[in-house]
Amino acid sequence: MVFRSGPLAPGVAFITGGARGLGNAIAVSFAKEGARGVVIVDINDEATFEQGKQNVEQYGTKCLIIRADVTKEDEVARAVDDAVKEFGRIDYAANFAGIIGPLGNTWDTSLDEWKRVIEVNTVGVWLCNKYELRQMMKQDSHRPLQRGSIVNCASVNSIQAGAGTSGYTASKHAVMGITKATALEARSYGIRVNAVSPGFLLTKLLDPFMKMGDEQAASEAWTKYEVRQGRKATFDEIGDVVVLLSVPRMSLVVGHNLVNDGYVLCVPISYATY
User: Fold this and answer.
1) What is the pTM of this model?
2) Partners of 120 in the beta sheet?
3) Which of 111, 189, 205, 252 supports an S-S bond with 100, CB 3.0-4.6 Å?
4) Which residues form the signal peptide (predicted)?
5) In 3D, which of 91, 112, 113 has the Cα closest to residue 104?
6) Is residue 80 part of a domain?
7) Where are the alpha helices (DSSP H) in 119-205?
């Protein structure tokens, strides 16, 4: 077992979407940097949960797994309560549960499909912020100038739109609105709220994109995005940025959207398959 050390000790992190992929990399980054406890909130199967937990606990950090749907208020409230029962507090939160949803022109997208993206990506983030903030406001500060830190998952789509992604783009613009508003509301309590905007990562969220048209065309399209980014991005590069925003030394960074995209935003986004 590796000894824990780092700038986040002895805090507790609460990660939604944390069982696999990007979310789990974020959970691992918190463990590497000294968090004494990491809570993984997700809706995955037991095998995925257990693997995600093992990835965290190899660093000597205790990991609690909680099954909860971020679109359901009672489940979000319960997840926060369960985390506090286990660890006594929540110092850091990273809200990374999300979906990309169907890809297609607005006139071909059903209302139910569009609303589902908003429910997960926007309502889910809002609900998590609501209950994370309620908890953080009740607890004493372990560090000067910071009672808690929340990092929401935005996207390069929170800044630029992409054809065929009206639901996803709307949801990520809304995430930034939530982030800025809650940052203003919470700053007097010593709680910082920020967001991270990753570039292109080959996550499960992009399954619909990779399945568009034939496999070769999808692969070629992905390669173009990768070239724009400069190189392949890794999950832990995003995880480390979330940790960076969370450390108490970042005390004046509030309501910020930290873009971690290589240089994707230097070139307009266009989904060539549409």
Assistant:
1) 0.87
2) none
3) 205
4) none
5) 113
6) yes
7) 124-138, 166-186
Catalytic, out of 59, 92, 131, 168: 168
**274 belongs to a structural domain:** no
Least-confidence region, from 88-97, 118-127, 153-162: 153-162
Q: How many domains does the chain have?
A: 1
Q: Let me know if 172 is a catalytic residue.
A: yes
Q: Are the beta carbons of 151 and 95 closer than 8 angstroms?
A: yes
Q: What is the 3-state secondary structure (H, E, C) of 213-254?
A: CCHHHHHHHHHHHHHHHCCCCCHHHHHHHHHHHHCHHHCCCC
CATH of the domain at 41: 3.40.50.720
Tokens of 230: 């400069």
**In this predicted model, what pLDDT tens digit does every residue of 59-83 receive, in sequence order?**
999 999 999 999 999 999 999 999 9
Would you say how long the chain is, in residues?
274
Residue 273 falls inside a structural domain: no
* Active-site residue, from 32, 59, 92, 172: 172
User: Half-sphere exposure (CA, 13 Å, Cβ side) for 259?
Assistant: 14
Burial 44-77 (b: 16+ CB within 10 A, else e): beeebbeebbebbeebebbbbbbbbbbbeeebbb
Q: What would the pLDDT profile of 8-40 be if each residue is shown by its tens digit?
A: 888 999 999 999 999 999 999 999 999 999 999
The answer to whether residue 1 sits within a structural domain is no
CB 134 within 8 A of CB 144: no
